Amino acid sequence: MKVTVIGTGYVGLTTAVSMAYLEHDVTCVDVDETKIKQLDLGNMPFYEPGLKELIQLRQDYLRFVTPSREAVEHADVIFFAVGTPANSDGSPNLTYLFSAVAETLDFIRTKNSPTVLVNKSTVPVGTADQIDRKIKEVGLEDRVKVTSNPEFLRQGRAIQDTLYPDRIVVGGDEYSSKLLYELYAGIAEQSFQPPMQALRPVGYRGPEYIVVDRRSAELAKYAANAYLAMKISFINEIANVCDRVGADVTHVASIIGKDSRIGSSFLQAGIGYGGSCFPKDTRALRFIADTNGYDFKLLSAVIEVNQSQKLIMLEKLQDRLGELSGKQISVLGLSFKPGTDDLREAPSFPIIHALLSQGAKVRVHDPVAMDKAMSLLPESVHFAVSATEALFNADAALIVTEWPEYTSLDPKDVVSLMRRPLIIDGRNALQAANIHGLEYEGIGIGSKRNCEYANMH
Ligand SMILES: NC(=O)c1ccc[n+]([C@@H]2O[C@H](COP(=O)([O-])OP(=O)(O)OC[C@H]3O[C@@H](n4cnc5c(N)ncnc54)[C@H](O)[C@@H]3O)[C@@H](O)[C@H]2O)c1
Ligand SMILES: O=c1ccn([C@@H]2O[C@H](COP(=O)(O)OP(=O)(O)O[C@H]3O[C@H](CO)[C@@H](O)[C@H](O)[C@H]3O)[C@@H](O)[C@H]2O)c(=O)[nH]1
To answer: Which H or E run includes 79?
Structure first.
């Protein structure tokens, strides 16, 4: 099939490359000329494991272009994967989407064969209906259909999530859902060749293809993200209780996660969620509920807990060091999670700003996100070329992102490098072998793990 993907961000490129992997003929469109030029040269606009290699593998099925009639008019299916960032009131900004839709409708106005427009961007309920009205306004309703096809991939494992999804959700009419079923058939059949075979998650049972009305599909995307964010804020509150009563949240999470009604995922306590999705989408869902006359109290609490959780490391640091002025603090990890260089809503930023405002000297390190971070952080922040340099002579180190580089540090090296071997682990990521001999504190495990392990070794 001929497929056009509009927007070459995480979702657009992953959609494009998975369609190319299934041997569809794919055109990727972006308004950002530099990005298109770089993609054409094989350079990725962001770090996503496996993406570059897969694009190379399927280059015969892919082309990268700026918007034009030619890019869309032959497509059977046109995916929209443009950004929907938050406005200051939390509402999603749909400017990019509606501008891409208007331009596309203009380009395909004289086309005679059918086209299905597929929205992959995360949008408020009723957006596909609005697009439908625009299709009718230009008199294309007999040939052009619109569906909602929300995306559930995670950054850092985008390829795996796309080729091995739990579900493919389509909100639309019978014609569009049948066409998309054909388009996705290769994913349902799962007859992948190496190296993609190796990405198959253990126990994976194939995707469920779910066809619903457009509004339910649109809301399901926000509901999924809000639910996962709720699990994180819940376990973070349990962690805060653990710190006060001397329990260990990792044990509590493991015990409750063994109940199949609860499930063990997304119960990793720490400094809260960041990224381009959970913060934006929880605020958007609250806004959607609010503007429809419903006060979503639980979601407000989820958002509020996440806000305060980001700075919990600072409290722990002050308890140990007192005044932070003049102290040298090493911040390990800048991206919002490992496996990505995405800095959007990363907890590292409020943490660094809080440290600086208290007069601390800050050294940061991240294995992949330093280039992006340099223009975004104040000049007084020192960018260390390695974790070792970041730790040298530090009064304390904060593990903000649990990159393997940090969780595998040899504690003997840490002791010899730091002025005071104090580690505050914002992700509870260090194991016993890596904290021996260190002054260590996590989130909701207090110094308990330290004492237990110290006695054991
Ligand atoms: N990032 C994720 O992990 C993820 C996962 C699921 C869903 N989503 C949702 O998918 C959407 C896209 O997210 P993303 O992170 O991939 O976006 P992104 O911000 O990384 O990229 C969006 C791209 O769209 C391009 N663009 C904007 N207007 C355009 C136009 N008129 N024509 C062509 N290109 C245009 C931009 O130049 C940019 O390259 C958002 O709604 C997001 O909430 C994101
Ligand atoms: O137990 C956990 C799990 C995650 N996180 C944090 O939560 C954030 C988000 O993590 P993750 O969900 O892995 O990353 P995203 O790539 O943002 O993916 C989420 O957002 C996407 C965009 O909507 C969705 O498609 C995905 O299904 C959804 O998982 C990160 O800061 C993590 O550190 C925790 O603190 N504890």
So the answer is: strand 77-80
Ligand 2, residue 346: give the atom nearest the CA.
31
Nearest-angstrom CA–CA distance, 225 and 353: 27
- With tokens 């509606």, the residue in question is 98
Ligand 2, atom 27, lies closest to the CA of 152
Task: State mean pLDDT over 332-345.
Answer: 97
**75-89 pLDDT, tens digit each:** 999 999 999 999 999
Residues in contact with ligand 2 by the CB-under-6-Å rule are 122, 151-155, 225, 228, 232, 266-268, 270, 273-275, 277-278, 281, 336-337
Does the pLDDT of residue 453 top 90, yes or no? no
Written as six digits, the tokens of 403 are: 């990159």
Closest CA to 173 of 122, 123, 109, 117: 117
Here the ipTM equals 0.98
Distance between CA atoms of residues 43 and 134, nearest Å: 36
Active site residues: 277
Q: Is 442 in the pocket of ligand 1 (CB under 6 A)?
A: no
From the CA of 441, how far away is ligand 1's center (Å)?
Answer: 38
pLDDT at res. 447: 54
Neighbours of 257 (CB within 10 A): 16
- The residue behind tokens 């407000």 is 300
Exposure string for 214-249, b = 16+ CB within 10 A, e = fewer: bbebbbbbbebbbebbbbbbbbbbbbbebbeeebbb
Q: Please name each of the domains of the chain with its CATH number.
A: 2-212 (3.40.50.720), 221-308 (1.10.1040.10), 310-456 (3.40.50.720)
What is the C-alpha to C-alpha distance for residues 454 and 414, in angstroms, rounded to an integer?
16
- Taking 90 as the threshold, does the pLDDT of residue 125 lie above it? yes
| pLDDT at position 158 | 96
Q: Across all residues in the chain, what is the average pLDDT? A: 95
What would the mean pLDDT of 204-232 be, rounded to a whole number? 97
